[in-house]
Amino acid sequence: MRRPSFSSLMLWAGLLFIYLPMVILVIYSFNDSRLVTVWGGWSVRWYAGLLDNRQLLGALGRSLQIALCTAVAAVALGTLAAFVLTRIPRFRGRSLFGGLVTAPLVMPEVITGLSLLLLFVAMAQVVGWPAERGLTTIWIAHTTFCTSYVAVIVSARLRELDLSIEEAAMDLGARPWKVFLLITLPMIAPSLGAGGMLSFALSLDDLVLASFVSGPGATTLPMEIFSAVRLGVKPDINAVASLILLAVSLFTFLAWFFMRRGEARRRRALQQVHEDEQRQPSWQPAGQA
Amino acid sequence: MKRLRQLLPGGRQLVVGIPFVWLLLFFLLPFAIVLKISFSEAAVAIPPYTEIFTYVDQQLKILANLNNYVFLGQDELYLSAYLGSLKIAAIGTLLCLLIGYPMAYAIARASKEMQTVYLLLIMMPTWTAILIRVYAWMGILGNNGLLNGLLQGLGLIDEPLRILNTDLAVYIGVVYSYLPFMVLPLYANLVKHDPSLLEAAADLGAHPLASFWKITVPLSKNGIVAGCMLVFIPVVGEFVIPELLGGPETLMIGKVLWQEFFNNRDWPVAAALAVVMLAILLVPIILLNRNQAREMEGRL
Question: pTM (2 decimals)?
Answer without folding.
Answer: 0.86
